[in-house]
């Protein structure tokens, strides 16, 4: 029998491929309501007219968030990483998500502290930060953050390059414009304000060089600033594109095949084509590799609750690292696709020769047994 704690955990958690539960949709509504209240309360004249309603709604929001926090601490032991009743709950309470939940409750107790202007502004800021709680309800946000983490090295390199250019441009303007404009360029830290505004293409216009050499260097810095902004923007756009592709077409995830795998047994069941000499020396995907990828795609589709999945030989061939524009190992790919067929599975498209990049098989779900070949 399923326990109450397990049912509450299922209602509060968001699993990939599933729709949000009624409770999660209600919590999203409460989060947006709390942010709206924070925005309204910043307009003091309007807020004074409906101060009673605002207090009631804020108390309602605080109670909901408090119940949610207690419930999440209670059910966290259902997850493998927090299985121990006491230690597991303590570990969960220091996770970033739990700390955000705890911070979201604090504005309810702030009115007791006092009404200083700084505290009031801090309370409104905390209420706005409740928007961070929406992250756990969005699979897309998680995928985008994962994609950005994959690009963290490139972003770090571009950031370091930007800091170096910032320091160099500020130093040059300090040397060139310092004697003429000591108030704006009398030191490297002072010149950095102009360098930041120029490299980010903002150009406030409050500080600018007046000497011919200074203007020439400023022009060069402004042109470099365009490329400086475009570089991280392109990296982030690439990460967003990868996350979008993975979300809407999960069958095309391109995890690279281990190129160091030189086990001769992997390819012993399939003979290479006659023109294999023209193919590079890089290890080619084998029937076992294709079968494993087919099994992964079928398992992923089954977890998403899909009634069937269609796998194309050409797309599968590219996904496991096949050579673009070549049919090398295509027979192994097609054999793996046909071997994985069970009762009810049908070819959506079958080439005249029986094998080729256009071969597409529709596999019905759920599957009666595993499709991985030994």
Could you walk me through the main structural features you see in this protein, from its secondary elements to its overall organization?
There is one protein chain. This protein is mainly alpha-helical and 374 residues long. It has three domains: 4-137, Voltage-gated potassium channels. Chain C (Four Helix Bundle (Hemerythrin (Met), subunit A)); 152-248, Helix Hairpins; 264-364, no CATH class. The protein is 58% helix and 4% strand. The chain contains 16 helices and three strands. A three-stranded antiparallel β-sheet has the order 1-3-2. Helix 4 packs antiparallel against helix 6 (96-105). It is flat. The model is unreliable at 112-116, 250-283 and 370-374 (pLDDT under 50).
Structural class category = mainly alpha
Low-confidence stretches: 112-116, 250-283, 370-374
Record field, number of beta strands:
3
CATH class of the largest domain: Mainly Alpha
What is the topology?
Elements: H1 4-12, H2 22-41, H3 44-49, H4 51-75, H5 87-93, H6 96-105, H7 110-113, H8 117-128, H9 139-150, H10 152-177, H11 182-185, H12 188-199, H13 212-248, H14 287-303, E1 308-312, H15 313-319, H16 330-339, E2 346-349, E3 360-364
Antiparallel strand pairs: 1-3, 2-3
Task: Give the tags.
mainly alpha, 374 residues, 3-stranded antiparallel beta sheet, flat, Four Helix Bundle (Hemerythrin (Met), subunit A), 3 domains, single chain, 16 helices, disordered C terminus, Helix Hairpins
């Amino acid at each position: 029998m399923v326990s109450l704690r397990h049912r509450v955990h299922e209602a509060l958690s968001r699993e990939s491929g599933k729709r949000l539960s009624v409770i999660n949709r209600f919590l999203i509504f409460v989060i947006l309501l709390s942010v709206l209240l924070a925005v309204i309360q910043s307009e003091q004249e309007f807020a004074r007219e409906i101060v009673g309603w605002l207090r009631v709604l804020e108390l309602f929001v605080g109670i909901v968030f408090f119940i949610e926090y207690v419930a999440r601490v209670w059910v966290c032991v259902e997850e493998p990483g927090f299985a121990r009743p006491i230690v597991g709950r303590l570990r969960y309470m220091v996770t970033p998500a739990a700390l955000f939940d705890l911070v979201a409750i604090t504005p309810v107790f702030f009115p007791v502290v006092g009404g200083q202007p700084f505290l009031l502004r801090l309370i409104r800021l905390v209420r706005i930060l409740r928007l961070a709680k929406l992250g756990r309800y969005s699979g897309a946000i998680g995928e985008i953050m994962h994609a950005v983490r994959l690009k963290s090295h490139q972003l770090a390199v571009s950031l370091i390059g930007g800091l170096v250019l910032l320091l160099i441009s500020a130093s040059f303007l300090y040397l060139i414009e310092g004697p003429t404009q000591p108030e704006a360029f009398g030191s490297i830290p002072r010149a950095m304000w102009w360098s930041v505004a120029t490299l980010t293409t903002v150009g406030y216009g409050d500080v600018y060089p007046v000497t011919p050499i200074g203007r020439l260097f400023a022009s060069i810095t402004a042109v470099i600033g365009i490329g400086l902004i475009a570089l991280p923007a392109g990296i982030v756009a690439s990460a967003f594109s990868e996350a979008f592709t993975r979300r809407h077409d999960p069958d095309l995830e391109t995890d690279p095949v281990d190129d160091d795998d030189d086990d001769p047994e992997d390819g012993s069941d399939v003979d290479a084509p006659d023109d294999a000499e023209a193919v590079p020396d890089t290890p080619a995907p084998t029937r076992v590799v294709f079968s494993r990828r087919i099994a992964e795609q079928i398992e992923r589709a089954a977890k998403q609750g899909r009634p069937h999945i269609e796998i194309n030989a050409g797309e599968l061939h590219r996904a496991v690292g096949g050579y673009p524009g070549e049919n090398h190992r295509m027979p192994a790919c097609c054999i793996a696709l046909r071997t994985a067929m069970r009762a009810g599975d049908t070819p959506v498209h079958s080439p005249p020769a029986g094998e080729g990049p256009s071969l597409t098989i529709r596999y019905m779900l759920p599957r009666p047994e595993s499709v991985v070949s030994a």
